[in-house]
């Protein structure tokens, strides 16, 4: 039985893609939190900001504080499985 390099390296690439996506999510989540809490004198921004704060409160209830959000190994592996499923559904 001959193993191709794809079958050896593909799971590691999926896990790497999962780690990259979680890192990207953490950056976006932190930027969204700073955006929702920033004060501005713009009247349009003052109308939108209460909605963003409510959305931030909802996200904090699910994910926790943006500064302390750290995915563990289970999260990374579950996202890797989701990436595998998405890639294989496109075929």
Automatic annotation (TrEMBL):
Q: Which residues cross the membrane?
A: 12-32, 73-89
Q: Which domain of life is it from?
A: Eukaryota
What keywords would UniProt list here? Membrane, Transmembrane, Transmembrane helix
Descriptive protein name = MFS general substrate transporter isoform C
List the source organism. Chlorella sorokiniana (Freshwater green alga)
């Amino acid at each position: 039985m001959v193993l191709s390099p794809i079958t050896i390296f593909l799971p590691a690439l999926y896990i790497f893609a999962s780690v990259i996506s979680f890192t990207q999510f953490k950056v976006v989540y932190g930027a969204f939190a700073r955006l929702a809490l920033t004060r501005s004198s713009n009247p349009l921004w003052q109308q939108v900001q209460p909605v963003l704060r409510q959305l931030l409160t909802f996200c904090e209830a699910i994910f926790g504080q943006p500064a302390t959000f750290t995915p563990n190994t289970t999260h990374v592996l579950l996202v890797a499985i989701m990436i595998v499923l998405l890639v294989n559904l496109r075929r």
